[in-house]
Amino acid sequence: MLIYTISMNDLGGIMKKKYKLYVVVFISLVFSIITAKLVTHIITNIDKTKHYTKSTKIKSANASSLNFESTVRFIGHRGVAGLAPENTMPAFELSGKLGFWGTECDARTTSDGTWIIMHDASVNRTTNGKGKVEDISFNELQKLRITSGANIDSYKNLKVPTIKDYLKSCKKWGITPIIELKPANNENYYSKFISEIKLYNNSDKVMVISLSSASLNKLRNLDSNLTLGLICENITKENIDYVKMLGNAFLDCCNKQMDKASIDLCHKSKIKIGVWLVNGNPLANKYMKDGVDYLTTNNLLPQSKTKSAL
Q: Which of 127, 154, 164, 292 could link 287 by a cystine bridge, Cβ 3.0 to 4.6 Å?
């Protein structure tokens, strides 16, 4: 009986040890599954954001001191020209991915009337080609490649985009297109320009800006829904009166000539006011505090989106 009793005790001890072992194995298994899922999640998010954090070297300090409680609407200048080559599809895509309200571009026409995106009158500065855009056919332009701009080494084989490419990207990301019409003898193609806008957006969802009042007048005669913007060096009564006459229009002013009194004058006249080009935190904070409506920048990023992308 004594031997039997000892055997049962031993068995009980063994069972307890086995039970403890099962518990340890179970906990280890659960922990392994959770860890695997966590690692997968981290890797997935790294894959999604490494293009922005490595290739474009985004730093959270860019947005850390900005007052994003302001109602200002941030516009990426030529896409986000401080992070990717200006006026290229990667720059426009970044505008959407990083949470900009809008993205700005510059529009011109080729010799055969195709609306393309390029700031300069010639292709010399930004591509491997030479010549004026208006003297180059679209097919010839498509053979060129973008060779300069922010982080260009991270972006290979870039073509000059068309207005259609740009508008398609804006629609994809749900951001507002802001199109600057560069001064050129291409008014015959304005109807085509508006038709292309309507393929991807209602015309009242697009903003078209220009230094030329003649260009803005022509556009207004063609479409009453377009939001138009006069680019100006400073705020004057003449500019305000002109924008009021255009209807559904605003002023887009150089930051060097902007002050709170000018902003207040525009708002008193029920005119919205944009400011360009603002790349520093102190100046951005000032204009947001002063109540500017739109702020165009190369590198200041909407904080909430920046944090999630880093």
A: 292
Model confidence over 20-66: pLDDT tens digits?
A: 555 555 656 645 554 444 334 333 333 333 333 233 333 333 333 34
The DSSP bridge partners found for residue 75 are 102, 296
Is residue 49 within 8 Å of residue 56, measured between CB atoms? Answer: no
More confident residue, 67 or 302: 302
Q: How far apart are CA 17 and CA 261, in angstroms?
A: 81
pLDDT above 90 coverage of the chain, percent? 70
Give the number of other Cβ atoms within 10 Å of residue 233's Cβ: 12
The pTM score is 0.78
Distance CA 193, CA 108 (A): 10
What is the distance, to the nearest Å, from the Cα of residue 125 to the centroid of all Cα atoms in its chain?
A: 23
The span from the CA of 145 to the CA of 197, in Å, is 25
Single-letter amino acid, residue 217: N
Q: What is the SS3 assignment for the chain?
A: CHHHHHHHHHHHHHHHHHHHHHHHHHHHHHHHHHHHHHHHHHHHHHHHHHHHHHHCCCCHHHCCCCCCCCCCEEEECCCCCCCCCCCCHHHHHHHHHCCCCEEEEEEEECCCCCEEECCCCECCCCECCCCEHHHCCHHHHCCCCECCCCCHHHCCCCCCCEHHHHHHHHHHHCCEEEEEECCCCCHHHHHHHHHHHHHHCCHHHCEEEECCHHHHHHHHHHCCCCEEEEEECCCCHHHHHHHHHHCCEEEEEEHHHCCHHHHHHHHHCCCCEEEECCCCHHHHHHHHHHCCCEEEECCCCCHHHHHHHC
Largest CA distance in the chain: 113
